[in-house]
Amino acid sequence: MSDQRHGLELRSTILAEGSLTLSLEDVTVAAPGPDEIVVRIEAAPINPSDLGLLLGPADLATLRTGGTSERPTLIFDVSERRLATVAARVGQSMPVGNEGAGTVVEAGENVAHLLGKKVGMIGGGMYTQVRKIAARDALVLPDGASSADGASMFVNPLTALSFVETMRMEGHKAIVHTAAASNLGQMLNRICLADDVPLVNIVRGEAQVALLKAAGATWVIDSSTPDFEAALTDAIAATGATLGFDAIGGGKLAGQILTAMENAANRNPGEYSRYGSTTFKQVYIYGALDLGPTSLNRTFGFSWSLSGWLLFPFLQKAGAEVAARLRKRVVDELKTTFASHYTATIGLAEALKPDILMAYQRKATGEKYLINPTR
């Protein structure tokens, strides 16, 4: 059996007694089938969606260490209440990492042309040194692109593009986006500038306002300022935005967006209605940077909706033609519109160092960690 099919893989395991363990485990993949490839993983980003599987319901304050320097383990307590929310994964050692990139080291007979190519991939289990995957779930990187360039070519780029697709499919004409200085938010800003889509960016600090303004954003609203709600209403009135995407989830921000949309609509109210404006307002929660309750102060009439949004159900609904078109645009603009920037690159063992884990799990705006399993 080829040595290229052996390696280490980062796993997350929850046990019934109420603990979550992160560990590095030996993995051996079988020979590729006719339409499969074996890839040496060289880069895989840590996205907020990855942290949901990696750490899930763990109480971070209970962190304790084990193992060795080469094979460290981290152990956390899981409360009985939160354990019930993950019952389906109890007892399973689960691989982590939605997307990644690397070099094809073996290829099946039908995809032999991919041997030696650098590819980006989606499909889970990417925090590993070796990954077997169907060739259809990989995209060849353009000439000159590194694995780090291609590591984040699926989740954030396709999400940002799909926000604009959702806007068009649902008949809106502008977008409100929260946590807008993130890697994803910066991509969305570049897309909207290129496609002439009005975008209202919500951030939470002066430095983030300056960053997006320098990148050409027209509307950047700082949620930490006393006049936030008034400024947000002005921006929505100017753009006509009736669609919002909220990465925060908890707290009152989603409700504030709906209220600002209602107040903007009421600047040209027409006939009075005790049910509020007839302008339909939609906010989608697509992230959980705040795990607390979502709080709504019902000051936005009755023509509204607040619901969840996930990338892959959207792409399935949109259809294969749309998904292929969006993927092609990502490849074509990989090093421009869809370029990602990383705070630090770490190895698999480093990902299990307590201080590094506490840094990347903060999900701080503008901070993004990359795992290089070859380190």
Secondary structure topology:
Elements: E1 6-15, E2 19-28, E3 36-45, H1 48-54, E4 59-67, E5 72-77, H2 80-83, E6 93-95, E7 99-107, E8 118-122, E9 130-134, E10 138-140, H3 147-150, H4 155-170, E11 175-177, H5 183-195, E12 199-203, H6 206-214, E13 219-222, H7 228-239, E14 243-246, E15 249-251, H8 253-265, E16 281-285, E17 290-294, E18 304-308, H9 311-318, H10 320-332, E19 344-346, H11 354-360, E20 369-371
Helix pairs in contact: 4-5, 7-8
Number of strands: 20
> What's the number of helices?
11
Predict the CATH topology of the largest domain: Quinone Oxidoreductase, Chain A, domain 1
CATH H level, superfamily name of the largest domain: Medium-chain alcohol dehydrogenases, catalytic domain
How confident is the prediction overall: mean pLDDT?
94
Shape, please?
globular
User: Which range best describes the helical content: under 10%, 10-25%, 25-40%, 40-55%, 55-70% or over 70%?
Assistant: 25-40%
Determine the N-to-C terminus distance: 24 Å
CATH architecture of the largest domain: Alpha-Beta Complex
Return residue spans where pLDDT drops below 50 for at least 5 consecutive residues.
none
